[in-house]
Every structure is written in structure tokens, then in C-alpha cells.
Amino acid sequence: MSAALRVALTGATGFIGQRIAAALTARGHGVRALVRDRGKAASSAALAGCELVELDLESPVEDSAALGPALAGVDVLCHCAALIPADLRDPRFAAKCLQVNALSTLALAEACAAHKTPRMLHFSSGNVYTPAAAPVAEDAPTYPASRATYYLASKLCGELYVDHARRRGALSATGLRVSSVYGPGRKGGVVALFADRLARGERVRVSDGGRYQTDLVYVDDVVSAAVAAIARPAVSGVINVGAGSATTLLTLARALATLTGRGAGAVGGEPPAP
User: Which residue out of 129, 143, 150, 151 is catalytically annotated?
Assistant: First the structure.
């Protein structure tokens, strides 16, 4: 087992963050959970044994000194928090996405450098790449203009800020470009959406013949990757975290229909786009 580390964790009350906190404490690492509401976070069983410190990433941070108490004495900052807008197509969310996902990330990176926190692990998105038919490597072009652009552009911007700090020698940084995560407790995402509809006895209809495909990765695999990256200081740069294979929406819908006992008749497809 690696030496015990002191880890500051944003997004600690989230779907992935809670699991990272529990995994780190189970391995003997100290976790400082940076949360928006300390009272609510105290009720989370996953955060038992964590130090709770309030930090609101939706409020602009003009001076990195304000983040000193959040980072004092820690070895690694794991930045898992993000704003995912309720409507990925609504441009009104663009400014808030940039504030939380980009500018707050910049403030955290600068604070790490200023307060001698040597390492930062930043969660980005595996969907920032230019759409491609085959799996992509980390050096593939990034250009998220096809879908969820306001959100993905902000995630890519935050990633650039962190990597800039790494390149200028201000800190050691690793970026995890995580693909589409699913698992127990996930409230959003296509897996939960389809499963909920099938559980209610509804039919699932997939548009464009269900040809859209995505890399679905189980949440525990993402947590394992994060914990491994935190424990290995030599790891830096950008790393893709996914299953390594694509699943079409039609394949996913049919698999869930089988698992829920609904059968193939519970899945319908709209005609392919011309």
C-alpha cells in the first residue's frame, strides 16, 4: 500500500465524488471534502471520517488566497466537481458553465501553486473529442461542437487552464477524460433514463435508428482510475477513462429491455435520418 496522503476533494457529495471519498478513506488516506453545504454533507455515510470544509465554486474567486484554508496541508487536490446544466442545449447556461467548470478550475489550479499543493487531479470529459468512428487516443483532436457544446467547451477550457499550470511547472497535474458513466445512484444519463422508462412499463424509442453510440464506463472503474492516479505521483498529462468500446443506443435499449424482462417489443426506433 502506498503512503497515506492528504487529499482535498471537490464534488465530494456527488455521484462519483462520494465513491472516491469512501475509497480513499478505506485505503487509509485522509480526505478533506470541499462541499457547498457542510450540514447536508454531514449526513452522507460516504463522507464519514472526512474533514468537511465549505467551498462554493459557483461564486467567483478573485484571489487564490481565499482558497488557502481549503488546500492547507494537503498533498493532492482531486477536482471532481462540475456543473452539468439541466438542458445541455440551452445557451443561457453557457456563462454559468464557464464560471464553475473553467474559471473556478483556474482559481483552484492557481491556489494549488500558491499554497504549495504539489498535485492536482482534474476530472474532464471524454466527449470533448472531435466525433470519430473509432476509439480515440489522448492526442486526438478536440472540438466539441456537435452536442452539449456549452458544457463541454467549459470542461475543455478548465482542462487547458490546468495543463497550462502543469506546463509552466507550477504543479503536477493529471486530467481524466471520463466517458459516459453509469451505475447505481446515477440520476441522469441514458442508462438511467432507459431503465426508468422500462421499469414504469413504458416503451423506449430511440431516434435516428438508435445509431448514436457512446463509451459506457461503470462508476467503480472510474473510481479505481482516480484512486490509482492519486496514489501515483509520476502520472501526469491527460488520460482517457472509459470501457474502450462503443455501444449504440439501440443495443443499450435492447439489452436493458432483456434485463428488465420487457423483451424486444419494449424498444422502438424512429426512421433513420435522411
Answer: 151
